[in-house]
Amino acid sequence: MFIFLWTGRSKYKAADAIAGILALEKTLESHQSIVRELKHQLISNSVDDITTFNLQLNDARARCAKKLKKNVYLQVRMNAHALKIRLRNRLRQRKFELEKLERSYRNTVNELNLRSHTETSIKRREPTILKIVSTYNTLCDQLHALIRQRKAPTGAIPPQHISRNGIFQLDVDDDVWQDIGLEDDIADPPQWLSDENRRAG
């Protein structure tokens, strides 16, 4: 692999590089012209000996390839082009990885912010909910006292207290879902249950 180091911005070096490119193009044109002429001879049947012709054609191609292979400028340019493609691929890959990381980070930060905000909001509401539980339990105590004092209707059932422990778990069988002692048990059953005509539709 050939590497040229440009130590200065010399107009002579630029001129040399341009001259090298022009010389390379002339050489390439010359070899392509020889190959074209040999092919033309083959097509127009003006070739006396096909074996000699094929040897000349292969020789012209080999000389052209050899000349191109030995050209330092072409090798360096090809290496530079290959490196540039690798660099672009790496930069593209890095950009996508950074974007993915940033998206993931933004989502995580947003999620953390939302979670933090939600937790703060929940914590702010907890005292209010616990106060409601305390007030409810105080009212239950009053209802118990009224039943003991026979100041409640006959057959009245005292409601159950709600425990402060585990109130935020909300299990399906928690006392918070039970309305025993808070509804009239002697109320008429709903019509869809007691009326045959209503049930029949």
Characterise the protein shown here.
With 201 residues, the chain is mainly alpha-helical. The protein has a domain at 16-104. It is built from 5 helices and no strands. The chain has helices spanning 11-43, 50-70, 72-148, 191-194, 196-200. The radius of gyration is 47 Å and the shape is rod-shaped. The model is unreliable at 1-10 (pLDDT under 50).
Concise synopsis of the structure shown:
With 201 residues, this protein is mainly α. It has five helices and no strands.
From the alpha-carbon coordinates, what is the Rg to the nearest angstrom? 47 Å
What does the overall shape look like? Answer: rod-shaped
Note the gap between the termini. 94 Å
Number of helices: 5
Oligomer: single chain
Notable characteristics:
201 residues
Task: Give the SSE layout.
Layout: H1 11-43, H2 50-70, H3 72-148, H4 191-194, H5 196-200
Helix pairs in contact: 1-2
